[in-house]
Amino acid sequence: MVNVGAYGFHQPEPQQAQHPLTVPVVFGPARRAQFTYRVITTGRGQAARLEESRLNALGKDGWLLVSVLPRSDGEGGSTLEYLFVRWEP
Fold first, then answer.
1. Which of 14, 51, 75, 80 has the greatest count of CB atoms below 10 A from its CB?
2. How many C-beta atoms lie closer than 10 Å to residue 12's C-beta?
3. For the whole model, what pTM was predicted?
4. Is the separation of the CB atoms in 83 and 63 below 8 Å?
5. In the beta sheet, which residues pair with residue 35?
6. Topology of 34-89 in CATH?
7. Distances (CA, A) of 60 to 13, 54, 67, 84, 89
8. Which of 66, 65, 63, 70 is nearest to 87 (CA)?
């Protein structure tokens, strides 16, 4: 059957999706996610940067960089704090 809309355009009938397999959904007790945090504080100037190789090594160990925070060291200088998080199964 062809459905003609208010403006005379052909509008096909909506069809139900047919799936040959039904995938069961199983609900179980939810586990609380547990995270471990790590803060790396670096010095001033160029020393304040973490090298790419160190960041890659942390990433391979499952650490994810979530923030870089500038901090005053109390002596008129500044440091950077790198905050990492890792999911613990």
1. 80
2. 8
3. 0.59
4. no
5. 87
6. Alpha-Beta Plaits (3.30.70)
7. 52, 10, 18, 13, 16
8. 63
Q: Residues 53-86: pLDDT tens digits? A: 999 999 999 999 999 988 887 777 788 889 999 9
Residues paired with residue 85 on neighbouring β-strands, in sequence order: 37, 64
Which residues, 6 or more positions from 20, have their beta carbon under 8 angstroms from its beta carbon?
none
Helices (H), the chain: 52-60
The amino acid present at 27, given as its one-letter code, is F
Q: What is the dihedral of CA 70, 73, 77, 81, to 10 degrees?
A: -30
What would the pLDDT profile of 5-14 be if each residue is shown by its tens digit? 556 666 666 6
39, 37, 34, 38: which is closest to 88 by C-alpha? 34
Rounded to whole angstroms, how far apart are CA atoms 36 and 83? Answer: 11
Pairing, β 34-42 against β 78-88:
antiparallel
